[in-house]
Amino acid sequence: MANISIAQLRKKKLNQQKITALTAYDATFARLFAKLGVDVMLVGDSLGNVLQGHDSTVPVTNDDIAYHTRCVRRGAPESFIIADMPFMTYSSPEQACEHAAVLMQAGANMVKLEGGEWLFDTVNALTTRGVPVCAHLGLLPQSVNVLGGYKVQGRDDEQANTLISHAKGLEHAGAQLLVVECIPTALGERVAQAVEMPVIGIGAGKNTDGQILVMHDMLGLNSDYLPKFVKNFLADSGSIEGAVQTFIDDVTTGAFPGPEHSFD
Ligand code: KIV
Ligand code: NA
User: Binding of 3-methyl-2-oxobutanoate: at which residues (predicted)?
Assistant: First the structure.
């Protein structure tokens, strides 16, 4: 069992202590993140970009995520690990259950899915069968070809209200954690208040219950394109360990993200 549980993440939310999360893809970084006390590690399908060199997450397979989940689990035997379900591996509840089983058996504590209302049945099917679910709303990178690019989501009232109602519906269906990506600060705060499950933001402002970044981005390794919400924590701290520690400290104290890393 992980040394941090969903119950503890919930308690952090209640006590207004920020949750720290980073992506992890291999045993060495997972070991370091565990040693420094990162609360949650995500085996993100962002590995399609940062490890595989694709220009989206669409080519990533369930076996890719399972392989990296096994690597991360070996490096961090006690940590809370979320595995991303890749593009088109959860288009029906049955298909989702089959693929989630592989990820759970690879060592994940929870799986993450991108989408709102269309996933209510799937979230229910997974959670009733013993698979904890993290939902993901706002910018959905797997849908980049429908969205027409990586853009801030939920800026108008109708979109914002839809996001809130989908968050509530996903929680009602059984989701126990929510990631929100690239939404205005005010909406990040609203969604965190609207649900009991902890809400972890990326580009969602400082008022969500926690923060996540892609590890390569926070180490300044993504040279060609840096989204606004990314901060290079290595630049000032001089070592990888120092960068991760500063990220943890700055998220915990609320120093990160600042307005320069947030959208209105
Ligand atoms: O794949 C990923 O890294 C993610 C985070 C950006 C939340 O889904
Ligand atoms: Na992802």
Answer: 45-46, 84, 112
